[in-house]
Specification:
By secondary structure, the chain is an alpha+beta fold. The chain has one domain: Aminohydrolase, N-terminal nucleophile (Ntn) domain (Glutamine Phosphoribosylpyrophosphate, subunit 1, domain 1). The protein is 29% helix and 28% strand. The protein is built from four helices and eleven strands, in the order ββββββααββββααβ. The strands form three sheets. The chain has a five-stranded antiparallel β-sheet. It has a four-stranded antiparallel β-sheet with strand order 10-1-2-11, with helices on one face. A two-stranded antiparallel sheet has the order 3-4. Strand 1 and strand 2 form a beta hairpin. The chain is globular, with a radius of gyration of 16 Å. It starts with a strand and ends in a 7-residue tail after the last strand.
């Protein structure tokens, strides 16, 4: 699994992730894996993926096939892309969808994305939320959320520092999260809606 975090503060938005690749009891650290980043950049968007590593590859390829600029500026925009992505997962990437919890197919991916318009979380059932301050997904998300909660109002820390702190806390206490971490920070647009 993984831990990914995103923070919005003082006109900036940051995203961070750990770098551990884990399959059952096997773990591969950044020391051994060249493509260990869980964050991809698609135009103005930084997208962090938790779940099966094949999902990262499928999502990256899906966006590369899109014509024109990929605009993920609202919950509605994101929902339409993810509806099409779910269809492509089954038809183009041979994904076997299973659902035991709801009437909707799951794609087993939880995704955080940032762009100048905010922080967005996309759940495995294509439930989409936009966050005002911060959020985390992954196996260490409880530790990350706690760390970010305790430090968000610290005036000495910017959005990137807080996002990184969340991943570091998860790496300290969760066995499916490990350093080094990877992070990015962008400026927020004046048109952000959250």
């Amino acid at each position: 699994m993984s831990t990914v975090t995103a923070v919005r503060k003082n006109g900036h938005i940051a995203i961070a992730c750990d770098s551990l690749i884990k399959w059952g009891g096997e773990k591969n650290t950044a020391k051994h894996v060249v493509n260990h980043s869980k964050i991809m950049q698609i135009g103005e968007n930084y997208i962090a993926v938790t779940g099966p590593a094949a999902g990262f590859n499928a999502l990256k390829h899906f966006f590369a096939q899109q014509e024109g600029e990929v605009l993920l500026r609202s919950v509605e925009d994101i929902f339409l892309y993810w509806r099409d992505f779910q269809k492509a997962l089954k038809e183009d990437y041979f994904f076997e969808a299973k659902s035991e919890e709801s009437g909707f197919e799951t794609n087993t991916l939880d995704i955080l994305l940032i762009n100048p318009y905010g922080i967005f979380a996309v759940g495995a059932y294509r439930d989409i939320q936009q966050f005002h301050f911060y959020y985390s997904y992954g196996s260490g998300n409880e530790y990350a959320l706690g760390a970010m909660y305790t430090q968000y109002d610290n005036d000495d820390l910017d959005a990137k520092s807080i996002a990184e702190l969340g991943v570091m806390a998860a790496a300290e206490f969760n066995d499916s999260t490990a350093l080094p971490l990877i992070s990015y920070m962008i400026k927020e647009t004046s048109h952000a809606s959250a």
